[in-house]
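Handout, section 4.2: multi-component inputs.
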Amino acid sequence: MYSRKNQRDLTRTEKKRLVDAILELKRSGRYDDFVTLHRQYYVTDGDVGPRAAHMAPSFFPWHRRYLLEFEQALQAVDSQVSVPYWDWTRDDTPSASLWAEDFLGGNGRPGDRQVMTGPFAYRQGNWRIRAGATADPFLRRNFGRPSAPVTLPGAADVDRALSDPVYDAAPWNSVSTTGFRNRIEGWAIGESRGVANHNQVHRWIGGSMAGAASPDDPVFWLHHAFIDLLWTRWQKAHPSSRYLPARVLPADDPQRDRVFALDQPMPPWNVAPSQLMDHSRLYRYV
Ligand code: CU1
Ligand code: CU1
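Output:
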């Protein structure tokens, strides 16, 4: 049992130990294996085959397990480290301590968007992008996407999603217009108004965080820890609500073999959403 802290509360030492553990995973090649895995499971509505990670009900449980795998890899390097969370409704500016020189570094420079500060800047020599979406070997960020401005979601946007008592809804993909899952994941719902919660955060950071290779930016883990915390908050707010679909979809449903019902094992771990509903024996959020 360990704690996942708000990143704003980490001490200088805690930040350094986390950064050092991440750099060690990068050096050993394990970090890029995680990026490759995410690219492999980033299946969209328009692709064929099952969707475990995105545009699907199992968005929350799949990423919970994915984060646990990453966290265990970090802890094999340094047993005192855990994945902190970034509450982007509070720490919502480029001057937040998250982006300081001693933690994740800051925005990309104009032009090629290359991150120039912090431990993950290419010029530091420890962070070469190998499994990225482009051929660029450097980490890229483009805060706020000035060419088509995007803001970070606010507390009201999150609260609107948390107040939906239904976990997910047909057609169980990116076009579901109700349900907690897509209100947080952020496809379709509110996109015209720019309210896309999880997706909006990826877009606000931009660069490497946009797209299937988004774990190339270490902020991915802090963003998804907050997403994981929001799932826990939703469960507490709606104790009689359940993960949906509860059962395998009927044979005539086009989503039957494309989404994972409560007890259907998800790749690559062969673990069902039902086995990931409760994290309280593993970690807690403080
Ligand atoms: Cu993902
Ligand atoms: Cu994400």
